[in-house]
Amino acid sequence: MGTRVVLLQVLRQKLNYVPSSTSIPVQFKTFKTSNLPLSLSCRLLCSVSNQTSSVLQHNKRNSPELSLRSLLDMGFTEYQAEQLYDSISRMKGRNAAKHVLSTLSALFVLGLNPTTVHKLLDKCPELCAVKEMQLQQRITQLRRLGFVEGSLQRTVSHYPKILTVPIKSVKSVVQFLREKCLFTTQQVAEILRDSPAVVLEDLDQLEYKFQYVYFRMGVKQAEMVKFRLFRFSLDDLRCRHTFLERRGLYQTPDKKGQTTMINPKLDRILNVDEGTFIADVAQASPEEYDVFQKLLAREWKDEEFEHGSIESYSEDDDDDDEEEEEEDDEEEEETRGKSGYNKKKKK
Amino acid sequence: MAMGLFLDTSRVILSRVKDLRALTPKRHRVKGKWAATHPKQPPTRMALQHFDATYSAQLGALWPSIRVALLSERKYGALLNHFSHNLDVEELQARGCKDFISNGEAFMFPASADHRSEFRPEEDSSSVSTVNHGGGSQQPSPLRLSPNIRCLVFPRGDVTRFRPARPDKFGLLSYYLLDAASILPCLALDVQESHTVLDLCAAPGGKALALLQTQSVRFLCANDSSVSRTSRLKRVLHSYVPKALLTDDKLRITSFDGTIWGEIERNSFDRVLVDVPCNTDRHSLMENDNNIFSRSRIGERRSLPKLQAELLLAGILAACPGGDVLYSTCTLSANQNQAVVQQAVQLAEEQHGIQLQVISLCPLTQMFSNTFHFAPNLHLGEMVIPHLAANFGPIYLCKLRRLT
Questions:
Q1: Is the dihedral of CA B378, B383, B387, B390 positive or negative?
Q2: How far apart are CA A184 and CA A186, in angstroms?
Q3: How far is B44 from chain A (nearest CA, A)?
Q4: Label partner for B240 (CA 20 to 30 A): which of A9, A54, B98, B138?
Q5: DSSP 8-state symbol, A179
Q6: Where does the source fall among the domains of life (chain A) (predicted)?
Q7: CA distance B368 to chain A (A)
């Protein structure tokens, strides 16, 4: 019953352009108290937005230009509307302005209030360039991946860039995480929620990061998800881990998964600020870590250079060169081959 | 119908079983194949395990910092060649390199009368706060150092790499890259005007070259037990020193077994440098080639302390009474350092009646504490320990004086 009221209100709002900034929070409220299953209400809203978009397009033929008036109608304050108008008009391409209105309305349908939308577009102006159809598809995909209402809005408002990523990319990342890294669907959803930036990461880098943590550090999927591994850059991770490893405070587990000492948890390595990490976990001085970072950066650069020249000559003894760079030679061999971690698949 | 299906599939499954091993319950299974050897581990891995076991006990809380420094890129110094002239040196200085030896001297004997005002900023190459300097500069050091040796290093924490030296118009190179801490034994040896010097294990030649830079050596005898290494030593000297200074009356290069020197030339040299073969900690951790921790060299490695004591004893015998002997290694291991010195001193007394005095190198450590990290509380000799911000060493040195 409540949903029907919502639908009518939204339709009325869009058709008449009656400014009703108060109706939006109401819409949000009724949304929450809706008794209908979420999927149904989503579908209803989608169909509503489809209708509104067609209505809008009809209207657009009459008024192709984005106007301050239309922004105000959507519920923005004057200041917000001005800002938006400025930034949108500045955007290159005439097409940008045309479907901005539909993009904005799609965001409202999602349940975000104008202030949030304004902040969002401020953070990520390229969101305006996304077509409304694409936006809807991407939102639907996120829902299918396990984003419940509430977390979806939270993620979009904190990381609006996630909606600028094409569906294919998100799909490939999810597929990678599920099939190659063997995360469960739930874990994948958690990863996307905690670290949405993962959809923008290069897959090769992602794979390397996963393999590094899985093999070199001996950390399993559950811990990776729990301690938000994917929030951290590969370089940070490698630097901190290598520092501990070379100090003798972290040991790669052997084939049976055993170590002769207790490794610090991933939590203690990543989720502490640098000062605490250096002083408490590594028990070193900031000067040491500073120099170490410089040395390591150079080592990596040299490695990349070697890799490049070795690939062009395809020597068979390149493994020896690679092994000499780290002292944990045996485990290195496992991570080098792409198929290495497939062997670890459990039934 | 379901039964028929079951029989079909079970037949299929059974036909795929190669042997009965998989069908035997685990508790009845017998291990078919046993490994005959340990899994192959590279020598660098063996070295690391060995060091972890010995040094964590010997060095305690210092070990993690030393370990990470040993496993990271080492820091070099550029030993300046006084016999060559080109712009390389000026270039290096322009990029921030300073001679750590002059720095150390200036720090110990500041020209300003007021000892409390410490150093002139342009001469101080490090940013480390210097608290105990007052104590060092209050009295002139009783320790003399070999003169004229100059070695440039980049400042503390600076990881810039040196470019290789280029030959000047006479074909001589302007500097020799080596671990700056390797210069310390040459400084401590205190070569003075017209001394005769014996370098018992001279190859590849960095220390011999440093000794020649003093321009105080009347006669240098450079020896190494290996012929191939001796030829390398010759090449090094010829790349840096003009031929005129390498004539037979000034330089003799030999390939004898150093331990027999007691029989060849006794009581002959004013100064003897005994830079013995050792675990070469850094090399053993980073390079698999020519690594003393490889399986084929276990015997050689285990007998190192014995060889080292013999070499030191030979050096003592070769020195003249009143002469100085300097023992140095590039390992942290106490049983190749202090233990060997003690052993040799004892043997010298028991077998040859030679009395030796240990000369304290404490002033040296005070002088260069801005450049190197020294191990604290070593009861015999001094040791440079690697540290990421000053990644030199490890170098152990101990100075002995023949009293009789």
A1: positive
A2: 5
A3: 7
A4: B98
A5: I
A6: Eukaryota
A7: 19
* Cβ separation B44–A327 shorter than 8 A: yes
CB atoms within 10 A of CB A237: 18
Check CB contact of B42 with chain A, cutoff 8 Å. Answer: yes
Q: In sequence order, what are the residues at sequence separation of 6 or more whose Cβ sits closer than 8 angstroms to the Cβ of residue B381?
A: B327, B337, B338, B341, B358, B361, B396, B397, B398, B399
Cis peptide leading into B155, omega within 30 of 0? no
Closest approach of B79 to chain A, Cα-based (Å): 23
- CB of A122 within 8 Å of a chain B CB? The answer is no
Put simply, the answer to whether B159 touches A295 (Cβ < 8 Å) is yes
Q: How many CA atoms lie within 13 A of A40 on its CB side?
A: 7
Q: A311: which residues sit within 8 A by CB, 6+ positions away?
A: none
Angle at A129 between CA A125 and CA A134, to 5 degrees: 120
CA dihedral A100, A103, A104, A109 (to 10 degrees): 160
Phi, psi of A248 (to 5 degrees): 90, 15
A246, A294, A299 member nearest B67 (Cβ): A246
Helix/strand/coil for A117: helix
Distances (CA, A) of A125 to A103, A139, A140, A160, B7: 12, 18, 21, 9, 66
Looking at the DSSP bridge assignments, the partners of residue B220 are: B197, B251
How far is residue B261 CA from its own chain's centroid? 23
B201 tagged catalytic: no
Going from N- to C-terminal start, the domains of chain A cover: 66-163, 165-231, 232-305
Q: pTM for the complete prediction?
A: 0.75
Q: What single letter denotes the amino acid at residue B163?
A: R
Is the complex ipTM more than 0.85?
Answer: no
